[in-house]
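From the shared-data thread, chain only:
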Amino acid sequence: MSFRFTELTVKALPIGKHFDASTPAFGMRVGKNRRTWIVQRGTDRRIIRVGHWPQMSLSEARTKGKQLLASTLLNHERVTFQEAYDLFCKTYLPSKKPRTQYDYKRVLKRHYLPTLAPKRLDAITSYMVAAITDDLVHTPSELIQATSVGKTFFKWCIRRHYLTVSPLQAAQLPKPKKRKRVLTDDELKAVWEASTEFGGSYGALVKLIILTGLRRQECAALQISWLQPDRITIPLEVTKNGKEFCFPIGRTTQLILESLKTNWHLLLPTYPYGPLPFNTFAVTKKEFDKLLNIAPYTLHDLRRSYRTNLSRLRVAPHISERLINHASARSDLEEIYDQYTYWDEQVEAVQKYDTWLSDLLNLRCGAHSEST
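Structure, as tokens:
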């Protein structure tokens, strides 16, 4: 049955399926509890949901319905998850940072493709996706990442008109548990000594995080070309906040970096697979922790410990935040009006920390060679 849709007429439509006289193939399906905007397309005259009234107004629904009906892309309703994934990797991901591309591909391949690859997108229900995410409740960080990546992917599918509603639309991103773990001096010393015993790229990476507070991915990506005698400059393509990060380094860090230089451009490659940045964190840390007898910790806890110990040494917060490259270190207004780099203050803070850590680890008085 056709009606000329207005805000008043759609509100009064009886139970059943109705189409707009002014926009053929666009209509509304009225049930006992819900009114759904629809379009009818294809040779099989299949119904595709556009949205629900009143959350989506008539004008919004009509515009979206026209877009779906006028689309020149073939067989949108028959696109599979695998086909959408391939196009997502080809058109959406290339503009993202390499680490972001890697994370999205890893999550989609690991959690979604094994189950959903052959399924048509419009046949994927919230129950199917929930079955995937429910299996991750015991790994909160992976659950958060899988939900976030899934939401982004399905929103992209909607923008491409492959879907009208995301099966993750109602999913709530789990709130990450706030970690406050800071290692004690004895624990920090134990981790350092285990790093010396363990050796390799991972042992050096742990020491560099203790010394600089770098994020693990930024540390693993370190290259010889980023080094100068007294500083490291990490390009914006690698940093989390997308800003170039230049920071001073102390004597202990300099010695470790010198010992890592090889013919490869990377300082911390993944052995024995060739010149690739170190990336086997979980497996290697499990082996590494067998050398320790301390409470559970993460590599990010070492970064938090670095920042906390800077405060212990009476380093001003705005200097400490710069040294760990926090995006919140400066407001937009400060970045405009305060062009001073605070470099000398950062150098002083790093030297103070290096002295404190060397005393803690008994690395002073000519014993620096132990750090390598």
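The beta strands are 2-3, 16-20, 26-30, 35-41, 46-53, 227-228, 231-234, 245-248.
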